[in-house]
């Protein structure tokens, strides 16, 4: 199978429960989802797959673990050719464009990359990473979380921390798929003076930051990241401290807004895993 005829199967493969109950958002949550039908026929398969497998609901269920002060909307829409996703504070909404998902599908390997990243992971991983990155922006705004440093970097850290608390299979999927996506985008990324002024980090930086947090969260599970040369040993030496720094900031700044105390991380891990697969 190729192209869009494969997308539904790939998204379905990320679920372990029946689609009739997958992604059910708790009634107490202030989460709203909108799947806007595309005008372009090629995007119809994306619309059908995302809607059938409740991808926005799945992310919304994770975010519903936070007590939100107001409603947060997740929206899939056509963006007149723009490959983008963003959080809009004026409408308190996270939007992901069909065009961006289309580019992810097209950049994924047909079967498996030389590094062993499957086509399934190369599609699913970036979609969830991007949606949770924008959810990070939403949490900063709605919870009035203070940010020391660049907000884009902080949103990446929040997304990575959440994803690293999912079940092992889901975490590996996102780390592999997200890393593949950053590395693929980096190949065509300009390195001129203007690029250094962008609020976003370079894709290779985002790749190494994700790899470092993964390795720092569990050196044994992610030892191949270093053993295979995807993360320099010099950087790897401090990754456990980097992970602990991000986890500490999350506990202090977002932890008080959670519906349960994240002490020790075990209870939060169980809740996140359950939300992602519920």
From TrEMBL:
Protein's name in the database: Metallopeptidase
UniProtKB keywords: Signal
Pfam families: DUF4344
Species whose genome carries this gene: Methylobacterium brachythecii
Extent of the signal sequence: 1-24
Origin superkingdom: Bacteria
Listed InterPro entries: DUF4344
């Amino acid at each position: 199978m190729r192209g869009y005829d494969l997308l539904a199967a790939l998204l379905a493969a990320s679920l372990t429960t029946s689609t009739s109950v997958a992604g059910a958002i708790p009634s107490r949550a202030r989460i709203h989802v909108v799947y806007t039908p595309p005008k372009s026929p090629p995007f119809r398969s994306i619309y059908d797959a995302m809607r059938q497998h409740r991808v926005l609901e799945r992310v919304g269920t994770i975010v519903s673990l936070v007590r939100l002060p107001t409603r947060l909307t997740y929206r899939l829409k056509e963006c007149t050719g723009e490959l983008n996703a963003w959080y809009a504070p004026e409408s308190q909404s996270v939007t992901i464009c069909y065009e961006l998902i289309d580019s992810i599908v097209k950049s994924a390997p047909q079967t498996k990359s030389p590094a062993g990243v499957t086509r399934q992971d190369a599609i699913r991983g970036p979609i969830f990473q991007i949606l949770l990155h924008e959810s990070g922006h939403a949490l900063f705004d709605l919870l009035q979380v203070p940010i020391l440093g660049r907000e884009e970097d902080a949103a990446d850290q929040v997304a990575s921390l959440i994803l690293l608390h999912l079940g092992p299979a889901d975490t590996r999927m996102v780390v592999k798929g997200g890393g593949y996506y950053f590395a693929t985008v980096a190949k065509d990324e300009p390195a001129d003076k203007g690029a250094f002024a962008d609020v976003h980090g370079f894709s290779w930086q985002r790749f190494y930051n994700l790899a470092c947090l993964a390795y720092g969260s569990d050196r044994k599970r992610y030892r191949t990241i270093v053993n295979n040369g995807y993360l320099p040993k010099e950087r790897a030496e401090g990754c456990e401290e980097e992970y602990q720094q991000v986890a500490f900031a999350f506990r202090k700044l977002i932890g008080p807004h959670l519906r349960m105390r994240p002490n020790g991380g075990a209870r939060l891990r169980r809740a996140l895993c359950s939300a992602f697969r519920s």
